[in-house]
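Figure S4 source data
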Amino acid sequence: MGLAPDPIAMNIQTKAFDNPIIEVADYSFLSDNGNINLGAPLQLKTLIQNKGQGIGENIKLTFSYPDLVVAN
């Protein structure tokens, strides 16, 4: 009929945004022989944990190395 409906007021309950809290929870340095020596290769293993309530998606971890360190 071309007539607009009467306006109505609505109250909608929503949930607050839960932030993810991403942290490096643990780390360890490993080598082939169990010793870390100057110039010898080693591995850095990390445990990344979400301590928040929100879902962490597409998490990117970036490390920076000193100039004398060669990273593979």
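Figure S5 source data
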Amino acid sequence: MSLTFVLSRVVPIVVIVLLSMTITRIATIALTLTGVSRQSARFQARSALTGAGFTTSESESMVNHPVRRRIIMWLMITGNAGIVSVVGLLFVTTTSTRLGDSTGGPLVNYGLMVLGGMAVVWILGRPRVDKALSRIIRRGLRRYTDLEVRDYEAVLEISGGYAISEKLVKAGEWLAGKTLQELQLSHEGVLVLGVQRHDGTYLGAPKGTIAVLPGDVLTMYGHQDRLADLDQRPTGVLGQDQHDKAVADQEARERREQHDADLQAERDTTVG
């Protein structure tokens, strides 16, 4: 197999795949900088690049956000151009290559070269390499773009059992028909970050006077077990009893955390 064949047939395919991976990485990180979770950003970036076109609520959030919409648009354009290039290159390669051809070499060798190129792509996609490349891309985006740079997971401390969750409020539930002040969810350690009305209106950082209506979607931040409890809380007196118990549990948790913090401060003072 000649060097000319390798350079003209195999290398372009590998380069196109590598470029697709790099573009997907860049788009994923760019989307996370606008507040999208990494898992959702990766899925939407790959969907747009390949033209899969999934229609979900996540996709709607991409279209409704001007920066995300611009990122997705460029992914779609780039993806279409890349697919056309790969198909055209494969067509030219398979039609021009003949068994035993002194310039093209056997098709078996050609296939092995393609597999070798894919192995290189696989190595570059390993977690350790991916993290290193992601750090470089993130620094570049922060330095050379005006994307809003926020590490939301770090800011909100989405770890240690804490999470952000959405809750669809149904008629007859404990949450329905009360104001946020009446619900006193903050006493349970749950913060309501936003309220999405059934008519599409979004209320960010809602005040206590906001009433929770059937059909609303609450975006809440708190401990996972507390969020799960709210999702299954019964109505009436039983629901109020669970609320009171959750408040007591939260107060006990805060006391434990304060006690641990005081002990740690004493240790630091002793060591110092």
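The chain has ten helices and four strands. The CA atoms of residues 123 and 166 lie 37 Å apart.
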